[in-house]
C-alpha cells in the first residue's frame, strides 16, 4: 500500500428543498441556479466542472473530482480526493433561498478513507464532519441522526448523517412513501489489467474509448453517457436516462485502485433489472472488495444484492441495517472475492 495517493472514496451530499410555488418548482426550481453560482459553490469545495449534460428532468455535471446532479428540488454532489464537500452546504442553501426554495432534507454518506490523515477540515474525522454539518444546517432540520455502520472488513465502514425538517415529516408520512432508492457501490483492488485501460491514451476520444473498451457502455445501453478521461489516468462518467442518473469514477493507480458506481431507481421497477445493472457494473472492475449501500423505503432491493454478487465470485462478509428519519432504511453490505483472499 502506498504511503499516500489519490483518495478515491467519495463524500456524497444530497439536499432536498421545497418551495411555495409548485409551478416554478415543476418547471425548473434549482436548475435555475446560474452557472456562476454553481462555480462559487464548487470553488468552496475546491473542484471544477469538466463537462455537463442535461435533459428534460435534470442536469448532470462531471467534476474534476466526481459529479453533481441538479434536479428541480434536489441536489446531489459527490466529490473525492481532498475536496471539502461540506463547505457547499451554506452557499447552496443561500442560492436556493434566493430562488424561493427552503431546505427540508439532508443526507451525507461516505465510506472509510484510504488516506484519512490527508483529509482537510472539516473532513479530518466523522465527528468533526457531523459537528460542521450541524452548525451549517438551519434549525428547522431538527430530526437528525449520525451513525457509523460497521462491517467485518477492517477499514470498511459506512458513515451516514441525515437531517430533516420537522414540518416535512408529517407531510412525508401522509404522502405515499418516497419510491426512489439509491445504490452506492465502492470497489477496491481492481483487476490490474482492467485498471490499465484507464490510463490515458492521448486525444479527445480517450474517454469514449475507455467507456467502450471496458464495457461501461453496456451497463445501461439506454443511457446517454457523458464521460471524461483524466491525464495521466483516471476516469469519470455520468449516465442520464430519463429522470435517472448513474455515475462511475475510477482511480486506477496500483496500490490504491478504486472505482465507484452509483445509480437510482424506483421501488416499482422490476428489481431484477437493478440487480442485472449492479452485476454488470461490478463485473467491469473485478474488484477484490466491494461494499454496497442501499437507501430505500423498500426491503426488496437489498435482499437481491447478495444473490447478485455470488455468481461473480464475491462472498458476503457482513450486512448492517439502520433506520434514518425521512431518509428511510440504509443497508450496508460488504463482499470479498473468494479467489483473491
Ligand atoms: C477524478 S478521477 C475519479 C474520481 C473518483 N471519485 C474516484 O474515486 O476515482 C480520479 C482519478 O483521476 C486522476 N486525476 C488526474 N488528474 C486529476 C485531476 N486534475 N483532478 C482529479 N483527479 C485527477 C487521479 O489520480 C485518480 O486516478
From TrEMBL:
<keyword id="KW-0949">S-adenosyl-L-methionine</keyword>
<comment type="similarity">
    <text>Belongs to the eukaryotic AdoMetDC family.</text>
</comment>
<keyword id="KW-0456">Lyase</keyword>
<keyword id="KW-0704">Schiff base</keyword>
<feature type="active site" description="Proton acceptor; for processing activity">
    <location>
        <position position="236"/>
    </location>
</feature>
<dbReference type="InterPro" id="IPR018166">
    <property type="entry name" value="S-AdoMet_deCO2ase_CS"/>
</dbReference>
<dbReference type="InterPro" id="IPR016067">
    <property type="entry name" value="S-AdoMet_deCO2ase_core"/>
</dbReference>
<keyword id="KW-0745">Spermidine biosynthesis</keyword>
<keyword id="KW-0865">Zymogen</keyword>
<keyword id="KW-0068">Autocatalytic cleavage</keyword>
<dbReference type="GO" id="GO:0004014">
    <property type="term" value="F:adenosylmethionine decarboxylase activity"/>
</dbReference>
<feature type="binding site">
    <location>
        <position position="6"/>
    </location>
    <ligand>
        <name>substrate</name>
    </ligand>
</feature>
<dbReference type="InterPro" id="IPR001985">
    <property type="entry name" value="S-AdoMet_decarboxylase_euk"/>
</dbReference>
<dbReference type="GO" id="GO:0006597">
    <property type="term" value="P:spermine biosynthetic process"/>
</dbReference>
<dbReference type="InterPro" id="IPR048283">
    <property type="entry name" value="AdoMetDC-like"/>
</dbReference>
<comment type="pathway">
    <text>Amine and polyamine biosynthesis; S-adenosylmethioninamine biosynthesis; S-adenosylmethioninamine from S-adenosyl-L-methionine: step 1/1.</text>
</comment>
<feature type="active site" description="Proton donor; for catalytic activity">
    <location>
        <position position="80"/>
    </location>
</feature>
<keyword id="KW-0210">Decarboxylase</keyword>
<feature type="modified residue" description="Pyruvic acid (Ser); by autocatalysis">
    <location>
        <position position="66"/>
    </location>
</feature>
<keyword id="KW-0620">Polyamine biosynthesis</keyword>
<dbReference type="Pfam" id="PF01536">
    <property type="entry name" value="SAM_decarbox"/>
</dbReference>
<dbReference type="GO" id="GO:0099402">
    <property type="term" value="P:plant organ development"/>
</dbReference>
<protein>
    <recommendedName>
        <fullName>S-adenosylmethionine decarboxylase proenzyme</fullName>
        <ecNumber>4.1.1.50</ecNumber>
    </recommendedName>
</protein>
<keyword id="KW-0670">Pyruvate</keyword>
<dbReference type="GO" id="GO:0008295">
    <property type="term" value="P:spermidine biosynthetic process"/>
</dbReference>
<dbReference type="GO" id="GO:0005829">
    <property type="term" value="C:cytosol"/>
</dbReference>
<feature type="binding site">
    <location>
        <position position="253"/>
    </location>
    <ligand>
        <name>substrate</name>
    </ligand>
</feature>
<feature type="binding site">
    <location>
        <position position="230"/>
    </location>
    <ligand>
        <name>substrate</name>
    </ligand>
</feature>
<feature type="binding site">
    <location>
        <position position="65"/>
    </location>
    <ligand>
        <name>substrate</name>
    </ligand>
</feature>
<feature type="site" description="Cleavage (non-hydrolytic); by autolysis">
    <location>
        <begin position="65"/>
        <end position="66"/>
    </location>
</feature>
<feature type="active site" description="Proton acceptor; for processing activity">
    <location>
        <position position="249"/>
    </location>
</feature>
<feature type="active site" description="Schiff-base intermediate with substrate; via pyruvic acid">
    <location>
        <position position="66"/>
    </location>
</feature>
Amino acid at each position: 500500500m502506498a504511503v499516500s495517493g489519490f483518495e478515491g472514496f467519495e463524500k456524497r451530499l444530497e439536499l432536498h428543498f421545497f418551495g411555495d410555488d409548485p409551478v416554478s418548482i415543476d418547471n425548473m426550481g434549482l436548475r435555475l441556479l446560474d452557472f456562476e453560482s454553481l462555480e462559487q459553490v464548487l470553488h468552496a469545495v475546491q473542484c471544477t466542472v469538466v463537462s455537463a449534460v442535461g435533459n428534460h428532468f435534470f442536469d448532470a455535471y462531471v467534476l474534476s473530482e466526481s459529479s453533481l446532479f441538479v434536479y428541480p428540488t434536489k441536489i446531489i454532489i459527490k466529490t473525492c480526493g481532498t475536496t471539502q464537500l461540506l463547505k457547499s452546504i451554506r452557499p447552496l442553501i443561500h442560492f436556493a433561498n434566493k430562488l424561493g426554495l427552503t431546505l427540508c432534507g439532508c443526507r451525507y454518506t461516505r465510506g472509510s478513507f484510504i488516506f484519512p490523515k490527508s483529509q482537510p477540515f472539516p473532513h479530518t474525522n466523522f465527528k468533526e464532519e457531523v459537528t460542521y454539518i450541524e452548525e451549517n444546517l438551519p434549525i428547522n432540520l431538527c430530526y437528525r441522526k449520525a451513525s457509523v455502520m460497521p462491517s467485518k472488513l477492517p477499514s470498511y465502514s459506512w458513515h451516514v448523517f441525515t437531517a430533516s425538517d420537522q414540518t416535512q415529516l408529517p407531510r412525508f408520512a401522509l404522502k405515499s412513501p418516497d419510491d426512489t432508492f439509491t445504490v452506492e457501490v465502492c470497489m477496491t483492488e481492481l483487476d490490474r489489467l482492467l485498471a490499465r485501460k484507464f490510463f490515458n491514451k492521448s486525444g479527445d476520444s480517450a474517454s469514449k474509448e475507455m467507456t467502450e473498451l471496458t464495457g461501461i457502455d453496456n451497463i445501461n445501453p439506454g443511457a446517454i453517457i457523458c464521460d471524461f478521461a483524466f491525464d495521466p489516468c483516471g476516469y469519470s462518467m455520468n449516465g442520464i436516462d430519463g429522470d435517472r442518473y448513474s455515475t462511475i469514477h475510477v482511480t486506477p493507480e496500483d496500490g490504491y485502485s478504486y472505482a465507484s458506481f452509483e445509480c437510482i431507481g424506483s421501488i416499482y421497477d422490476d428489481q431484477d433489472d437493478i440487480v442485472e445493472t449492479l452485476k454488470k457494473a461490478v463485473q467491469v472492475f473485478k474488484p477484490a472488495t466491494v461494499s454496497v449501500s442501499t437507501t430505500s423505503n423498500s426491503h426488496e432491493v437489498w435482499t437481491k444484492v447478495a444473490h447478485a454478487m455470488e455468481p461473480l465470485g464475491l462472498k458476503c462478509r457482513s450486512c448492517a441495517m439502520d433506520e434514518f428519519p425521512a431518509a428511510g432504511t440504509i443497508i450496508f453490505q460488504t463482499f470479498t472475492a473468494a479467489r483473491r483472499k
